């Protein structure tokens, strides 16, 4: 009997945004019976051998409900524990404390006062997806205080980071790992100021294939090792991971985000073998 794999989406994007289109035939070629289903649908996820989070991009407004659903699914990838840790960007502070090169990050919980960097900076909710709720401000901008207050009024912790100007010229570099092993990389243009996709769930991105330099790969490897240690798992237990890096003022790479929950994996920006590597990693997880 063929193993079953369900690619999990949301109601607004029931079959994803197109990036995973080639994943279905790749899984099918390795013996899987594949279907799509929104996470909050009536689909019987407990019947599947592999339940793979792909486009659950409405979770930010319903995180508690989403986490409860994740914990109810026996064969979820990545696991519910990983999702709980990764869907709150306070994990960046944990990685900073572990000695990783991370974009300086401070958290402002509801009821606390804000302290802003002395240069341009970004304010975003600690729980969010697709850059929704993120905004850039100039030094001392009073509007930043109002933005933090608005996030607090919605129950969010605010995350504050100095703006990395390298994004304007070279964007972000995303390194993709499948089953803990490097697969491919792509660049992402600056998202702040971009237009919202028609689904209303994420900002549109300009993506392009990339060959990552050695220092970026070295940092991405360190980030995955540190995150796995914090989670108490092996790297190989992560079906997928996307490490988003930017260049700091000194030209060295910094971690901007570690995406372990539902990231676009840039299959349209890389070689055709990437989806086969993904399908093989799914088989590895089941083994």
From TrEMBL:
Highest taxon above the source species: Bacteria
Keyword ATP-binding set for record: yes
Residue stretches making up the ATP-grasp domain: 92-287
GO terms, molecular function: ATP binding; metal ion binding
Keywords: ATP-binding, Nucleotide-binding
Protein's name in the database: ATP-grasp domain-containing protein
Organism the protein comes from: Amycolatopsis tolypomycina
């Amino acid at each position: 009997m063929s193993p079953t794999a369900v690619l999990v989406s949301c109601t607004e994007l029931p079959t994803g945004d197109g990036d995973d289109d080639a994943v279905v035939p790749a899984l099918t070629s390795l013996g899987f019976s594949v279907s799509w289903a929104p996470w909050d649908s009536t689909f019987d996820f407990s019947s599947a051998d592999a339940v793979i989070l792909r486009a659950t991009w409405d979770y930010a407004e319903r995180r508690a409900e989403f986490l409860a659903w994740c914990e109810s699914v026996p064969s979820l990838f990545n696991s519910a524990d990983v999702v709980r840790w990764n869907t709150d960007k306070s994990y960046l502070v944990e990685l900073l404390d572990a000695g990783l090169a991370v974009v300086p990050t401070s958290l402002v919980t509801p009821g606390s006062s804000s302290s802003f960097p002395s240069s341009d900076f970004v304010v975003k909710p600690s729980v969010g997806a697709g850059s929704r709720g993120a905004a850039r401000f100039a030094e001392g901008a009073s509007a930043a205080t109002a933005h933090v207050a608005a996030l607090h009024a919605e129950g969010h912790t605010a995350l504050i980071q100095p703006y990395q100007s390298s994004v304007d010229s070279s964007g972000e570099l995303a390194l993709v790992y499948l089953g803990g092993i490097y697969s491919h990389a792509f660049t992402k243009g600056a998202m702040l100021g971009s237009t919202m996709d028609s689904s209303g769930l994420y900002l549109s991105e300009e993506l392009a294939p990339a060959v990552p330099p050695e220092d970026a790969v070295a940092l991405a490897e360190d980030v995955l090792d540190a995150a796995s240690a914090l989670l108490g798992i092996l790297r190989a237990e992560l079906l997928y991971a996307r490490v988003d890096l930017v260049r700091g003022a000194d030209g060295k790479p910094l971690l901007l985000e570690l995406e372990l929950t539902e990231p676009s994996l840039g299959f349209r920006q890389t070689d055709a073998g990437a989806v086969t590597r993904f399908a093989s990693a799914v088989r590895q997880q089941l083994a």
